[in-house]
Design goal:
Elements (H helix, E strand, L loop, with lengths): L12 E5 L3 H7 L24 E2 L4 H5 L4 E10 L2 E11 L2 E2 L10 E4 L2 E4 L12 H5 L14 E4 L2 H8 L6 E12 L2 E13 H4 L3 H25 L14 H15 L3 H9 L9 H28 L5 H23 L2
Parallel strand pairs: 2-5
Antiparallel strand pairs: 1-9, 3-4, 6-7, 6-8, 9-10
């Protein structure tokens, strides 16, 4: 029941990287003022943590104290030693706090940080983490999903020279109570043209959605290889499907940086030119289609070779190819 941090469960933290430590620290200082209260930075704050907080200054929030730690001394012939520590809950945030190094997801009037997910490589969330999402919306009505990238990246991209690029380190962790289940670090090189783009950012994110749609189709297509297309069995070929999807994403990752470079070469007006967008995304879409088909065939080879199984393969392949064309050609 102890709050793990000011952001609750850990999010995916994005830190722009400078040429040296000084620059890195400087461009990660948020140039905004959303202070409330009069709290000081942690090492100058005499207040003992352990209360519910509904206000905090920027520096207090950036050095948030979610725990109290008590060192328990033991006398020893060589002096005093500490082999035991006691933990108690510290401050708990009940206030509106937008962390400058986190991306946020907006859905159904709820705002939540973009977090690391099991089995999902960090680069798949790069659209939300790195790119301007002001023109991006997914879904309809009140169920629309939108994203906002970390605030510090707006400043960092504004400092890049034309034709240059910004390196961004992304750190993530999955935890369960006191256990660290998984942690990851990824470094991305974002071209200036894409980092500063507005309308192109939404189109770029939709290309990542296209890859997600193809992965979902791959999962369904493998299920169709099962008798009655898996009806009545939610776990039909689940292990095989997961293995093929994982291979699909691992192989597609090498096409991600070239996709960013292709968009960086476009002018902002290219958002209105379908032919230019189709040209910039041609290799990406071709790779999506090729990998989805390859992984489907990998799964199909593991199936039985009797007449019924072959018939299911033919129907599943035909159905998949028809839907895949829609995924790759749709806006």
């Amino acid at each position: 029941g102890k709050s793990p941090s000011i952001n609750g469960a850990p999010g995916l933290y994005a830190l722009p990287i400078g040429r040296n430590l000084f620059e890195t620290i400087l461009i990660n200082i948020p140039l905004r003022n959303n202070d409330s209260g009069n709290g000081r930075i942690a090492w100058r704050n005499a207040r003992i943590p352990g209360s519910v907080r509904n206000q905090a200054t920027m520096v207090e929030a950036l050095t948030w104290r979610p725990r109290k730690v008590r060192l328990i001394p033991e006398e020893h012939p060589d002096g005093t030693r500490v082999r035991w520590m006691g933990f108690e809950k510290g401050d708990k945030a009940e206030m509106e706090w937008i962390d400058p190094n986190l991306a946020y997801r907006y859905k159904d009037d709820k705002v939540s940080p973009v977090r690391m997910q099991e089995g999902r490589p960090v680069w798949r969330d790069a659209g939300a983490l790195l790119i301007n999402q002001s023109e991006y919306r997914k879904g309809t009505g009140k169920h629309q999903v939108a994203f906002k990238r970390p605030y510090v990246l707006d400043t960092a991209y504004g400092l890049i020279a034309p034709g240059g690029s910004q390196r961004v380190a992304v750190y993530g962790m999955r935890s369960e109570k006191v256990k660290v289940l998984e942690w990851a670090k990824s470094v991305f090189t974002v071209p200036a043209g894409l980092g500063r783009a507005t309308r192109l950012g939404g189109i770029f994110h939709r290309e990542l959605d296209r890859a997600e749609d193809a992965a979902n189709l791959l999962h369904c297509s493998i299920t169709w290889l099962y008798p009655r297309e898996g009806a009545g069995n939610k776990q039909a070929l689940a292990t095989l499907s997961s293995r093929c999807e994982r291979a699909y994403w691992q192989k597609l990752e090498k096409s991600f940086q070239p996709l960013m470079d292709s968009f960086a070469a476009l002018g902002e007006d290219a958002a209105d030119d379908k032919a230019l967008i189709d040209e910039a995304t041609a290799d990406w879409r071709r790779e999506i289609g090729l990998l989805a088909q390859q992984q489907f065939e990998t799964a199909a080879k593991d199936m039985d070779a009797d007449g019924d199984a072959i018939e299911r393969q033919v129907k599943a392949r035909r159905k998949m190819n028809a839907y895949l064309r829609r995924v790759l050609d749709g806006d």
